[in-house]
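Cysteine desulfuration protein SufE (Sphingomonas jatrophae), 135 aa
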Amino acid sequence: MADTLDDILAEYEFLDADDRYRLLIDLGRALEPMPDALKTDATLVRGCSASVWVYPVRQEDGRLHFLADSNAAITKGIIALVLQTVQDRTPGEIVAGDIAGALAPFGLEKQLSSNRTQGIPNMIALIRATAERMA
């Protein structure tokens, strides 16, 4: 995921609905692979219509790097977008950040079905709770 959130948003804004889906799917495909052994009940995000797993890895410098996966292509793209806001930041930066606000310009709730977006607050809550615990 070399692009910044701003770069992704600039591209997203120019796309029609179908191409926005394709962009989300491409973001999901670009996620770093998550080993199946990490896809456990403990890493499962509750309240998502699809299965979503998020696993934090503390880097030597204290920053958090997240591995994530989903069994649904669009949902995998959504978690990839969420990770763009927190990847390789310190726990304090993640806790202080406004993840939902950073994602608001994408208007995902207008673009995607409520089934696909209902889990976003839960993804954010899990990442924030993880950062708070590791701070």
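The chain has a mean pLDDT of 93. The chain has eight helices and two strands. ok done for today
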